[in-house]
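Issue 218. Parser rejects a valid record. Input:
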Amino acid sequence: MIGIILVTHGNFGAELLRTAEMIVGAQDGVETIAMQNGSSLVDIADEIESVISKYEDSGAIVFTDMFGGSPSNIAMAYLGSRNVEVVSGINLPLLIKAFSVRKENKSLRMMCSECAESGRESIIVAGELLKDRS
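Output the parser choked on:
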């Protein structure tokens, strides 16, 4: 099973996982890494590397909270080297999509593509949507 690794600022990843599991149930093969105020970039990189090594055979997707942030920048160092992909901009619908598509045994690339699309499509300005319907 493809591993899912959430690397985020603060406890966002752990809380996001907890919330997703409240909706879809407990998940295996999911790890969270929190970058706290004052965290060492080297320590975070070591932690990411350690977790990625658990999924060398199956592959892993590292989800980060925002592109260009330290979690994302550190995670991108592992792109391509160990069957790893990085997807930035994690949100709840995207994470739930990841849990569902990895059960379908899709390729790492296809899984990432579907997750990113789901995340983008989940952003709705309710007022604009309702205005278009009236």
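Fixed in the parser; the record now loads. The chain has six helices and four strands.
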